[in-house]
Specification:
The protein is built from 14 helices and five strands. It is α+β, with helices and mostly antiparallel strands and 401 residues long. The chain has three domains: 206 residues, no CATH class; 69 residues, Single alpha-helices involved in coiled-coils or other helix-helix interfaces, CATH 1.20.5; 117 residues, Histidine kinase-like ATPase, C-terminal domain (Heat Shock Protein 90, 2-Layer Sandwich). Helix 13 links the parallel strand 1 and strand 2. The longest helix has 73 residues. The protein is elongated and about 115 Å long. The two termini are 32 Å apart.
Length: 401
Amino acid sequence: MDGDLWCHLPVRFPSSDLPLTIMSLTWKLSNVGKTRYLPEAPTTRQERRAIIFVSGVWLAFLAWTVIGLLDSTASIPIQVAAWAALAAFPLVYLRGFLHPDILPHRSRHFSTLLYTAALIVLGLIMAQSTPTAIINIVPYLMAQWIFNHRLFTGIAAVVVLFLAAVGVVAVANLDDYANWFLASVGSPAIIMIFIRISIEMGATQQERAEQLRLAQQREDLASTVHDVLGHSLTTITVKVQLAQRLLATDVDAAKTELADIESLARRSLSEVRATVTDLQHPDLAEQLDQAANALTAAELSFHRPEALPRLTLVQQQIFAWVIREAVTNVIRHANASTCTISIRANGEQMRLRVDDDGTGISDTDPKNHHGLAGLYRRVVSAGGSLEIIRLGPGTRLEVIL
């Protein structure tokens, strides 16, 4: 499977050129508990098609259940129910990847538990006609957990489901199935863990590359500040020395030099401020933490994203600036009791919303507000849009970038 297709797995990170060597796998396993990548839901039509293909191809292994149903000697009503459950199973299974968050305000674990319960119910219905069906669905349950959650959670769930399947085989006396158990359940579990670790390694490498680019950008900006100050201070030093000499012979010329020095100092200060502003971009995750602390201190209820979606560097920086200004406005002016921040995909772009339930705002033109005018220019210059929306009660600040 090529790297382009891997990009559209539930975790949207490339895994090409990442061989699972023994050393890299050992290192990764030692850091399983430190991973923090929460796989994202697909947002584009291309990603959804890739999800359906990559996840759906494994549904071919339901053929074993089909064979069991064809050989079933159960009553007609039970067989009809089993076939209906078989038809519904792929729909629920694929929906678990296409829409992993059933309720946005509940955790991903809650949604996956609901999908798991639904798949188990369908498996139990099929098992009334062919008992091995309940074991045949186990790899699909494993996939829901390992590809929709962080690596540590996914591996833990795979282990639990594997042990549960062993228990079912033992308790249900499925002796004929025992010979096939490792091939039908154990092998898929190992393959899924290897794939998930490969994706995780790709994500780690991509994050490191992003951090390296950010460090390089900061270094370039710092170099710019140095260049600006170096040139300006050198010029100012020369002019000060000249003015000192002119004071004794030509006061008017000395005053002219001093005026030039003042003008140069002001211009240099403006250049330094502009450069430093670009240099000191706030971190989005850190800004969310600061917003939580500020709102809590102001005795406001705060709802934030459980995990951040995959964002570009520009999106992270712009969203961090917006959250800083918006939360400050909520605390100072909104007279609100609740503030909700959400970051979600909006087609090919990302959408940030900061909602409050306060008294609202009379003027929804961001250019007419001192603090928001600068944000508006920053967002527009990055190719995005900023809009203030009345919620009644409350206000929404929405940025699409």
